[in-house]
Structure formats: C-alpha cells, structure tokens
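Backbone geometry tokens:
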Amino acid sequence: MSSEPATLASVETPCLILDADRMDRNIARLRAHLAPLGVTLRPHLKTGKSVEVAQRLMDGPEGPATVSTLKEAEQFADAGVRDLIYAVGIPPDKLPRVLALRARGVDIAVVLDTVEQAQAVAAASRAAGTAIPALIEIDCDGHRSGVLPGDRDALLAIGRALVEGGELRGVMTHAGGSYAARTPDELRRYAEVERKSVVDAATTLKDAGLPCPVVSVGSTPTAHFATDLTGVTEVRAGVFVFFDLVMHGIGVCAIDDIALSVLGTVIGFQKEKGWILIDAGWMAMSRDRGTARQPVDQGYGMVCAPDGTPYPDLILADANQEHGIITVRPGSDGTLPPLAIGDRVRVLPNHACSTGAQHPAYHVVHGADPAIAATWSRFGGW
C-alpha cells in the first residue's frame, strides 16, 4: 500500500468530496443572518449525518440540534449531544427508543399532529414515570403534515391530551412549500407565512392556559430570507451546511457555495452521441432529480473540473447504476471538454442529503487544493 498522502488524483472513485472552506462559509453566513433576529439556530443534522460536521454546526458539543431518524439521535447522543428534536411524526412503537435516550440524559423531544399520538405519548410517559416532551406540528403551507394554524379545536384537543402525562413543549413547522419559490420576494413571503402560522398557533395554546415555550420554524430557503422572526424562539435548517443545485435553482446560494460533490473517473466515450462516460452513476449521485421541476434542469448534476470549477453547460445528463453519462446541456452552445480515459471530474448534486446518503464517508478538501485533508465517516439507517 502506498504511503503517499491521498489526493483527488489518487483516491478511489466514485467518492464524496466535501470542501470544508465552503462549508464553514455557509455556516457562518446563516449564523450572521439569524444573529440580529434574536433566535437560536437548531441545525438539522440529517444532511451531514456525521459527528465531525455536527460539531461545526452546533452552538456547542451538546446541541441544540434536530434529527430525522432515531438512529441519528442515538449516534449523536453517543457523541455527547444532549438537546434534540426528532422532527418526524412519532408512532407509538418508537417511544421505547425515545425513553431509552431520555434515560441516558438526552433531552429529546418528539413531534406529533394528532390526538392519538398525543394520547400515546402521555400514556408512555405515565407508564415510564417521566414526561416525554412533544411539539405540535403546524401545517403552514399545505406542503406535508401538521395541524392548520387556525384549527383551534384540534390544537387544544392535542395539547390537552398531551399534558395528561406528557409535556407540551411548543409548536413547530417546516415551510417545505418554499422550495417552489423563485424570487427573493416570494421567499420572504413564505418566511412570513411560516412565522405567522406558528406564532398564531402558540397564541391559541397560551390563551387557553396551555404551555408553549418553544416556537420553532425551519427550512433552508426561509431561514435565509426571513426578515422578522418576532415570536419565534428557534430556527431549524439543514441543507444550508452544504447547499446543492436545488437550492441554487431557488436562489438561495451561488454555484460556488455548494460544498459537496462526487468525484468520478472517465471510463469511456460514445463520441457519435456526444457522451463522456464516468464511473459515477445513480448509485453515487442518487436518483434525485429535483432540478427537473426548476427552470434549469441540471440532469443528475453539474460537471466540474477536479478543482471544482464548473465546465460551461456540462451536466450528468443520464445515469445507470454505475455509469454516468456526461453531455452538453441540450440547447446550449457548450462543447465537450477534451477529457481522456482516467481523467477525473467532480459532479455537484441536485440534493445534498440524498447524494450524501449513497456514501460512507466524506473526503475533505480545502478549496482548490487537491490534497485529501481528512476523511470523516457518515452513517445511515433508521
């Protein structure tokens, strides 16, 4: 085995590359935006799924943070994180794992939006002799789940069922509809709707004599475009740590803010078709085609030189399991670069979370330096 330090020219491909300089800049940008708005950043760790990344995201080693799986909660608890929200609706059969985490000293709160879930949380709390904290999810934009902010009866029924043994910690929402926005004005409107929805729901609970200390909002687009967070206590966001082509298409980041890429090697050509083949297919990039719904379709990703500089109008247009097909963007004036067998390219992903999930580790670089400065493990599972 060679003792030479690994570089972008020698590491085995396909593999996941993380530009730590861009990542740090992304984190600093959101913190600077939120600082004057008087809220806590509770970063979502689902994008990174890595202790090393989490340590750079959080206020301190114990959190606060957000997770999307109990596997994440357990892994980060092993690393010392103690303040967590499990931000996916809780089914009764997962409550024993929540209680096990709480028995370890982890203050993990769950999320729910039905009376049935609240009753299950209250019953499990009574049986265990310890109150499980929960937040009521609010539907601010029809994107996914939650209670409508104006549904007073549902809010009070859930809150009252929960406090019969559990703990009503507050309300939370996720403005997933903001992913359809395309202008700064639209993003600011989504952010205000998000804010008002949870603040109104919190007011309903408090006016009825129910506790609501936490008022939590969060999506990467609204986090960056919110201008008034009056009544909100915390912001959750996740993909901002790396950004991706979907966020670029929304208008949240520039191409040179995207910190994550997949390194691939040229393995063949179909010159009559205008194809360059690489060893990074959808198993390396994921099947996510989020930019297909945006004005600029990036295929499976934007193709860059090894130093991270994009080739003009070059995309990973199609993908098989282990083959990626690079072409010039249809309708453009771009030309194929003079790549040879064995040359390497980096592909920026549509969705950092799903592309990251295809890989066991990050190969960390700093800017255009080809040296692999570190390797950070990442995990998956539920």
Observations:
- DSSP finds eleven helices and 17 strands in the chain.
